[in-house]
Amino acid sequence: MKLMKIPFKLIALLVIALIWLVCLIAKAATHISCYVVGPFMLLVGIILIVMLTKSRWSDVAICGGIEAFCLIVLFGVTWMIANMEDLNALLIRFVQS
């Protein structure tokens, strides 16, 4: 039975390396983009407050949509990284068995 697992373990090692590389690139991109997206979201939030005080509701909707889009993208990338790390841990346990 152990001999039957060896090819799958070799394939799993390649997948582990690939997932590790994708996670590393995604983490670096997330950290770098936070320095760009963070101030942009702050600016959009300030514009949103100004538009709320002036009762320009269409501009409030546009700024709110931009703000929500930025949050969803950052959350989505973080969720993807967490799931990829879980998959990587699962594959590592398979290789160690």
Characterise this structure.
It is built from 2 helices and no strands. The protein is rod-shaped, with a radius of gyration of 21 Å. The mean pLDDT is 92. With 97 residues, it is mainly alpha-helical. It has one domain (19-96). It is 95% helix and 0% strand.
Kindly summarize this structure in a few lines:
The chain is mainly alpha-helical. It has one domain.
Offer a few descriptive terms:
about 100 residues
Total number of helical segments? 2
What spatial form do the alpha-carbon principal axes imply?
rod-shaped
Q: What portion of residues is helical? A: over 70%
Number of domains: 1
Strand tally is 0
Unreliable spans: none
Identify the quaternary structure here. Answer: single chain
Average residue-wise pLDDT: 92
* Terminal Cα span: 12 Å
Structural classification = mainly alpha
Biggest sheet details: none
